Amino acid sequence: MQTVLAVLVTYAAALWLHLPEPSWAVFSALFVIQGSIGGTLTAAMDRVQGAVLGALLALLCVSVIGTGAWRTILSLVAGVGIMSLIAGVRPQLNYGRYPSPS
Asked: What is the dihedral sign for C-alpha 69, 75, 52, 47?
């Protein structure tokens, strides 16, 4: 019931905010929903921190390595590789992880 309610509230909020694709908000809710409000908030914050860290890392890679031809590929490999190492040490920062049951 908790998951259904979370999805419905998220979908309604996405529609109210006029998001271009409300399904992404629903998927995000499904990734962070936990057995308790505290667990859900922690999972949501971890997901935001992982996304921000990944975005900053991507900007750094593009700034240092550049884009175009082989530089784009190298930037992608470097960014994904470094973020994978970080997520190996701090798995809660893995943006695409499915939350473990609490």
From this structure: positive
DSSP state of 99: P
- How far apart, in whole angstroms, are the C-alpha atoms of residue 91 and residue 50? 9
Q: What pLDDT is stored for residue 7 in this prediction?
A: 86
pTM as predicted: 0.66
CA dist 49 → 9, 20, 94 (Å):
23, 23, 9
| Residue whose structure tokens are 């997901």 | 47
CA 8 from chain centre, in angstroms, equals: 20
> Residue 102's pLDDT is what?
45
**Can you tell me the distance from the alpha carbon of 90 to that of 28, in angstroms, rounded to the nearest whole number?**
20
Q: How far apart are CA 88 and CA 37, in angstroms?
A: 26
